[in-house]
Structure formats: C-alpha cells, structure tokens
Amino acid sequence: MLATRCRSLCSVDLWRCRNLTDRGLAELVAGCRMLEELDLGWCPTLQSSTGCFQQLARSVPRLRKLFLTANRTVCDSDIEELANCCPLLQHLDILGTRLVSAVSLKKLLKACPRLVLLDVSFCSQIDTRVVQELSSLFPNVAIKKSFTQ
Fold this sequence. Notes:
Blueprint: H1 2-5, E1 11-13, H2 22-31, E2 37-39, H3 52-59, E3 65-67, H4 76-85, E4 91-93, H5 102-111, E5 117-119, H6 128-137, E6 142-144
Parallel strand pairs: 1-2, 2-3, 3-4, 4-5, 5-6
Helix pairs in contact: 2-3, 3-4, 4-5
Protein name: F-box and leucine-rich repeat protein 4
InterPro entries: Leu-rich_rpt_Cys-con_subtyp, LRR_dom_sf
C-alpha cells in the first residue's frame, strides 16, 4: 500500500518489523523512490543473500539515512552498492554486522562525500586500528565503534 499510495514518501521507520520480507522491501523501494530515510534496524527477516539491500541501493538514489542495525547478513557487496548508487548518504548504521570489511567501508567513504556518521559498533571485522585509519583518512566523518570486552 505504501508503495502504491505514498509515492512521495521520504521517510519510513520499520524498526523491529518482524514480517517485512525482501519482496515487501523491493515493492516499497520500487514505489517510493523519493525515500531519503529508511530504518530497517532489527528486521530479522531481511537477508542480504536475496539481493534486497543492493536493490534498495539501486532504487533510492536520494537516500540520506539508512539504518541496517543488527542485520548480521549485510556484506561488502551491499556496502559497495550503496557507494555506487547513493552518493547523498549522510548516515549509515550497520551495527553488529560480521561480513563488512574495511575495504568496502573505504569505498563507501570515498564515494559518499556527505557522510557524517558511520556506526560500525560490534562489527567483528572492524577493529580499533581500522577505525583509527579510516578516521584519519576521513576526518569529517564520525565513525562510531563500540566494542565487546
């Protein structure tokens, strides 16, 4: 319904939506191409292997804020597609992912000059050294990193 009736929608908060499928997300971003903010944090049914996050990136080039919090399936190819397709991105939260590397984050930071906040807390491949390196290369971006002890 949102995709067909709310084509000018610019912000959607689907945080903790337990029944959002990759097909539902595809319909949403195909119909609501004006989206600038999207919260998909803690949506356990969305899986990167379906291509849903790459399709999201390709469909909403105006995206400024994206929350993929606690989706452990987000991977490098998703981040690279955001870098390729979402140059206006200002805020990205990928807290808790295990599959994103420093290489894809560097591509994202280079491709998205408006990025001001990147949350990589509890991302197992991103350690303190990586955060320090990226922070020195991209001093205008606040890179948030919380660690487990």
